[in-house]
Amino acid sequence: MLSHTTHIRTRYGEIDQMGYVYHANYVSYCHEGRTELMRRHGINDQVLEANNIMLPVVRFNIDYKNPSRYDDLLKIETTLTEIKGPKMRFEFAVTNEDGSLVCKACSVVAFVTADKRKPIRIPKLVKDALGLE
Question: 89, 108 in Cβ contact below 8 A?
């Protein structure tokens, strides 16, 4: 499937009292990875909203392996691994500068109409932009 790599440098405000990146920030990092993968193919929130489409997260799982610290440069590898009905599944691998695995995660998003919040199959404009079918 489709993959994309994004780099994020951790910021001081993302660090907890133990000196590590606070665990919830990895959700944002993965969201950034997914956003950039889609943007690379011409799909962003403005395009979706202009077409009455929203893309809420319906599932998110994460396995933490090693901590990150202030000013670490993280690599977020994002892969679109499955498309089924109204849903798309993304997998993430976050590594630090020395190549150590920081965490692995999985996110499932669903396409819904913005006005009625009803699930819809993946829109043609998204399939076309991603080169699917």
Answer: yes
Amino acid (one-letter) located at 79: T
Tokens of 133: 């079918």
Q: Which residues on adjacent β-strands are paired with residue 34?
A: none
Determine the average pLDDT of the residues in 91-119: 97
Task: Count how many domains the chain has.
Answer: 1
| Half-sphere CA count of 22, side-chain side, radius 13 A | 10
**Number of other CB atoms surrounding residue 31 within 10 Å:** 18
Tell me, what CATH number does 79's domain have? 3.10.129.10
Question: Could you tell me what percentage of the chain is helix, strand and coil, using 3-state DSSP and rounding each to the nearest 5?
Answer: 25, 40, 35
Give the residue numbers annotated as catalytic, written as ranges.
16
Answer whether 0.85 is exceeded by the pTM.
yes
**What amino acid is encoded at 70 in this protein?**
Y
Q: Where is 93: in which H helix or E strand?
A: strand 87-95
**Owning domain of residue 51:** 3-130
